[in-house]
């Protein structure tokens, strides 16, 4: 009754600050939908009785209707806000999401992410001439072409444009082209050293 | 942390944003009210344990969340009527106009501005004063705990507040004993 489960979902999401994506609460969602179904069925039954003359039921019907609308609002806002966070992930992490994050998404959300990726890629290809334009690079105006970076954890080998490979070991420092590093910086593997 | 995450913000003036998490939590806050006819025990309906009586008699006091108040309220006051919470009443309004900075909003009610704007939806002769107080308080306290774009919100909603309060209302918001003093 009174949409407590829906509200709890909203509260949890609201608490997760900074666009962080908590795990998808399948069980709570199922319970909230079950609550809505039960409310709806009871209202269906009561409406025919009220039409037959039992006006004392009108308050109950109206109350259940308010609860249904409240549930609907909470669940829709929950799902929509999660999609906003997932969309942001494409810009933060790139096209391949870390496994830990993928575990937090429902199957439908994963599919939505894939379709969003595709839309974005199609759009980026259509802009900026022959090869398209990668909008997810250089989100802030860059100050220089090459930057000094320090590796925060072992990442293995990394290939640079002219073919040479660099071994990214913890605490090693490198002077690399900005556009190659941007993705890794955002993932927290490299750190931009400002000297 | 995530710069690409743009959540749905709270609504402007007297309107809520349907998908805004902030507005959903704000509309969960409770309002004092009064049953205008005998009602089944709301506590039981809301799943908060059993009561002794089958129903709640007409005239009894209720505390209901804003979303329920908005849903059950109608201009003919058949089901419930809604009262102003303490902090929006005349006594507190003078405190705010004297010096809004001394009021600890975290203690008095976490959604003072947003909730106050929502109260304007229920016809009440005091609405222009309420709107004025909320706006003034925001102007004098540049860092409200929630709903930062308040003055913009209120300016857009201000016309509605003046309009609905101007209509000779069957004031469905009762202002309680303070008025008589």
What's the SSE blueprint?
The complex is a heterodimer of chains A (195) and B (181).
Chain A: H1 4-15, H2 26-51, H3 58-93, H4 99-103, H5 107-126, E1 146-151, E2 156-159, E3 165-168, E4 173-177, H6 178-187, E5 190-192
Antiparallel strand pairs in A: 1-4, 1-5, 2-3
Chain B: H1 21-26, E1 30-35, E2 39-40, H2 42-45, E3 55-56, E4 61-65, H3 66-72, E5 80-83, H4 90-98, H5 105-108, H6 112-119, H7 127-140, H8 150-166, E6 173-174
Parallel strand pairs in B: 5-6
Antiparallel strand pairs in B: 1-4, 1-5, 2-3
Domain GINS subunit (chain A): 55-127
Organism (chain A): Lonchura striata (white-rumped munia)
Protein name (chain A): DNA replication complex GINS protein PSF1
Keywords:
heterodimer; A: 195 residues; mainly alpha; Methane Monooxygenase Hydroxylase, Chain G, domain 1; Ribosomal Protein L9, domain 1; 2 domains; three-stranded antiparallel sheet; two-stranded antiparallel sheet; 6 helices; 56% helix; elongated; B: 181 residues; alpha+beta; four-stranded mixed sheet; 8 helices; 38% helix; 12% strand; disordered C terminus; DNA replication (chain B); GINS_Psf3 (chain B); GINS_bundle-like_dom_sf (chain B); DNA replication complex GINS protein PSF3 (chain B); nucleus (chain B)
């Amino acid at each position: 009754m009174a949409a407590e489960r829906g509200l709890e979902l909203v509260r949890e999401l609201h608490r997760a600050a900074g666009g962080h994506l908590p795990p998808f609460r399948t069980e709570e969602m199922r319970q909230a939908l079950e609550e809505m179904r039960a409310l709806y069925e009871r209202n269906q039954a009561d409406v025919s009785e009220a039409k037959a003359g039992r006006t004392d039921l009108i308050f109950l019907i109206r109350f259940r209707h308010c609860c249904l609308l409240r549930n609907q609002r909470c669940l829709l806002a929950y799902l929509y806000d999660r999609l906003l966070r997932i969309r942001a992930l494409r810009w933060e992490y790139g096209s391949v999401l870390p496994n830990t994050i993928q575990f937090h998404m429902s199957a439908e959300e994963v599919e939505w992410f894939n379709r969003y990726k595709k839309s974005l890629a199609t759009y980026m290809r259509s802009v900026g001439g022959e090869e398209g334009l990668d909008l997810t690079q250089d989100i802030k105006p860059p100050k220089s072409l090459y930057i000094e970076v320090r590796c925060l954890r072992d990442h293995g080998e990394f290939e640079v444009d002219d073919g040479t490979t660099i071994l990214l070991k913890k605490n090693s420092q490198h002077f690399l082209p900005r556009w190659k590093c941007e993705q890794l910086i955002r993932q927290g593997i490299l750190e931009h050293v400002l000297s | 942390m995530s710069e690409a995450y743009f959540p749905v913000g709270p609504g402007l003036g007297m309107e809520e944003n349907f998908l805004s998490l902030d507005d959903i939590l704000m509309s969960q806050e409770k309002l004092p009210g009064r049953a205008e006819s005998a009602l089944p025990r709301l506590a039981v309906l809301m799943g908060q344990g059993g009561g002794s009586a089958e129903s709640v008699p007409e005239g009894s006091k209720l505390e209901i969340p804003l979303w329920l108040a908005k849903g059950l309220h109608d201009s003919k006051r058949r089901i419930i009527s809604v009262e102003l919470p303490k902090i929006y009443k005349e006594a507190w309004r003078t405190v705010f106009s004297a010096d809004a900075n001394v009021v600890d909003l975290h203690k008095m009610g976490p959604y003072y501005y947003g909730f106050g704007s929502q109260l304007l939806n229920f016809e009440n002769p005091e609405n222009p004063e309420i709107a004025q107080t909320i706006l003034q308080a925001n102007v004098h306290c540049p860092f409200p705990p929630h709903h930062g774009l308040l003055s913009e919100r209120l300016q857009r909603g201000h016309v509605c507040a003046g309009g609905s309060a101007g209509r000779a209302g069957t004031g469905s918001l009762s202002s309680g004993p303070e008025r008589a003093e």
